[in-house]
Amino acid sequence: MYDQNNIFAKILRGEIPAKKVYEDEYALAFHDISAKASVHVLVIPKGPYISFSDFVEKADDVTGFYKAVEETIKLLDLKQGFRLISNSGINGGQEVPHFHIHILGGEKLGPMISK
Ligand code: 5GP
After folding, report:
1. Which helix (H) or strand (E) holds 54?
2. Per-residue pLDDT at 42
3. Rounded to the nearest whole angstrom, what is the distance from the C-alpha of residue 58 to the centroid of ligand 1?
4. How far is the CA of 41 from the centre of ligand 1 (A)?
5. To which H or E segment does residue 58 belong?
6. Widest CA span of the chain, in angstroms?
7. Span from the CA of 74 to the centroid of ligand 1 (angstroms)
8. Most buried by CB count within 10 Å: which residue of 4, 39, 89, 107?
9. What are the pLDDT digits (tens) for 36-78?
């Protein structure tokens, strides 16, 4: 069940501040509080979705969210490239149970996976 008190739900409700990068009717993008690269932005849908699978199964407009991810990438000016990550569940290392995409870039990134 979706936890209405997870940190990203609180950010969406404006109860916790975030450094906003982009917002539209589908999504909110903001800087990660603990950046793992010189650019590290999170994009979250404006709905109660726990994970990638939950979002794709339940959202009426999946495309709108992904277009918001692309708008965010354009705003961040990541012409040299970037990496998108979405952690899901225990094995994926997901910490916040509200679906999100990490956008990482601004420098040459290291190996994709470290155990
Ligand atoms: P996950 O491990 O769930 O894929 O990633 C959660 C991300 O949320 C982490 O990179 C973490 O730094 C970030 N995060 C956790 N709490 C906050 C917060 O209060 N504000 C912001 N902006 N990011 C947060």
Report:
1. helix 52-58
2. 99
3. 23
4. 10
5. helix 52-58
6. 39
7. 22
8. 39
9. 999 999 999 999 999 999 999 999 999 999 999 999 999 999 9
Q: Which domains does the chain have, with CATH numbers?
A: 7-105 (3.30.428.10)
Q: Which residues pair with residue 30 across a beta bridge?
A: 20, 42
pTM reported for the whole predicted model = 0.98
Cβ atoms of 62 and 56 closer than 8 Å: yes
Q: Tokens for 22?
A: 């982009």
Ligand 1 neighbour 32 (Cβ under 6 A) = yes
The residue among 44, 42, 43, 40 whose CA lies nearest residue 78 is 40
Whether 17 lines ligand 1, by a CB cut-off of 6 Å, is no
Ligand 1 nearest-atom number relative to CA 34:
12
